[in-house]
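Homework-ish question, so no full write-ups if that breaks the rules, but can someone show me the predicted structure for this set?
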Amino acid sequence: MDFNSFQKMVQTFGACRARWETKEFEAASAWAETPRGADIIRSEQKLDERLNLFRPPVCAGLSDRLYAALLNEKTQRQFLFILRYSTWLSLLFMIGGFCLGWYQTRQVYINTQSYFDTLFDINY
Amino acid sequence: MTADDQTDEQLMRATAGSDAAAFQKLLDRYSQRVFGLAWRLCADKTEAEDLTQEVFFKVWRNAGAWQPQAKLETWLYRILYNLFIDSRRRIKIQPDALSEDIQSDDNTPEQNLIRKKNIQEVAAAVNSLPDRQKEALILCYYQGLKAKEAAEILSVSQGALESLLFRARQTLKEKLKLKE
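A: Not a homework solution, just the prediction itself:
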């Protein structure tokens, strides 16, 4: 690594060594110890310090709010799903109710049949 | 194994199976970082929260789509970045709103004023960068992504990404009057 490559790398990734992305880390560290290298580092450090001021605000309770919003949305989606298929669901329930009624009426009819038969026989 | 010891892969697999508790762990782990990126990109707290919410809704619905080979954090940032690009088309972002988000420390009012002014100056300088340079700087410098990961998100080569970073820092030095 020559000095220009070192300078370019520091001016790209900043003064913090943990950020340096190079295969020649040892050579870069050696350049950083030289007076010219130290000047470059100092200059980039000033920029880093300024950049570090730009921090996002603390957003207290964010994950709880997101979790609550998700549960709320889940309920809404279930409701909308029911709403979207409400016509078909109504029809399904109607047919189900009709079948149930038919089945139960048949059960009662079995008992009433003999009663009416008997009644018919008595009268006619 | 406690829930905190669980890897991202385990949590994502549980989330794909509609395990809300696992999803909450993911929220605890990543929501602030995703919010941080959103806030830096759009310079507005409310908009940043909305974007963060949309990201996690997408994760909840499509957790099964995540491939464990990809780093979860990078995947989240990519979702956010795509949402941000879409939202930028429909919303006009107001960078001035940023000043309302800057919180005061326990310093004297004068110190707070100076600090606020410095932060506003840096924020304005970062926000005035061309979009790609700003995004490269935010992803690499602030979010700590490797150049390769950031390049993937921005759909550019690693070399192009490094060039964007270099130019961004040079421009910032000029704007913040740090050039010797």
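Now go work out the reasoning yourself. Hint: Residues 62-123 of chain A form one domain.
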